[in-house]
Amino acid sequence: MPGRVITIAQQKGGSGKTTLAVNVGLGFRARGLRVAFVDLDPQGSLGRWFMTRMERDPEACEGMEFATSSAWGISYECRKLTENADIVIVDTPPKADSDLRPALRVADLVLVPVAVSHVDLWATESVLDLAEREGKAALVVLNRTRTGTRLGAEIAQAAEALDAPLARARLANRVGYAEAMGGGRGAAELARTPARDELSALVDEIAQMLETP
Ligand SMILES: Nc1ncnc2c1ncn2[C@@H]1O[C@H](COP(=O)(O)OP(=O)(O)OP(=O)(O)O)[C@@H](O)[C@H]1O
Ligand SMILES: [Mg+2]
After folding, report:
1. pLDDT in tens, 46-68
2. Measured from the CA of 144, which atom of ligand 1 is nearest?
3. Of 93, 152, 164, 176, which sits 20 to 30 A from 73 (CA to CA)?
4. At the top level of CATH, which class does the domain 4-194 belong to?
């Protein structure tokens, strides 16, 4: 079976797209699947992360590939990568315009991170609209949650009302996410991190939606 494509999209900058790309990709890799990462963002953070990982520990990149692509080249790139990879993760720039369309079109699932703020939530509908127009399943993931805050509860409630399922798993606001990224790693690879459980739960949900192991 050719690999599955997960596109990560959100118009709002800094919502956690690249963080999600890295940590979900590594989550699938840790389960023995081959993973390819594609960076569509000219900012190039995902590529920086991958190169840092490669320099630090090439063995930690086994079973993983990295590519960049233009917005319009993504369909060709994904066709090639899905021949070898079980999961292709496409990270996109913070936009929800016609440039995003090809990346949505190739997706088996669109992941939409929402950092816990009203501004992030407002930006979400346009991405969900685009995904729907392409007939794609989307999953909204709450990111940087802070339990016990009123804002957190408000956003979670409003996110339930969006036109796409909301992941049961949520990623908390943890310095480990930023720290791990800088070292070419994933948050679950840090010692004794509570991020491991939330990431594992999220990968479970995604795997279920994609019907992968
Ligand atoms: N759960 C989290 N806890 C703590 N920090 C986080 C979390 N998620 C993301 N961050 C931090 O927030 C910043 C933005 O995250 P990230 O780069 O993943 O967002 P993005 O959506 O890819 O941004 P852009 O739109 O610029 O591509 C980074 O510094 C990242 O380390
Ligand atoms: Mg990014």
Report:
1. 999 999 999 999 999 999 999 99
2. 1
3. 164
4. alpha beta
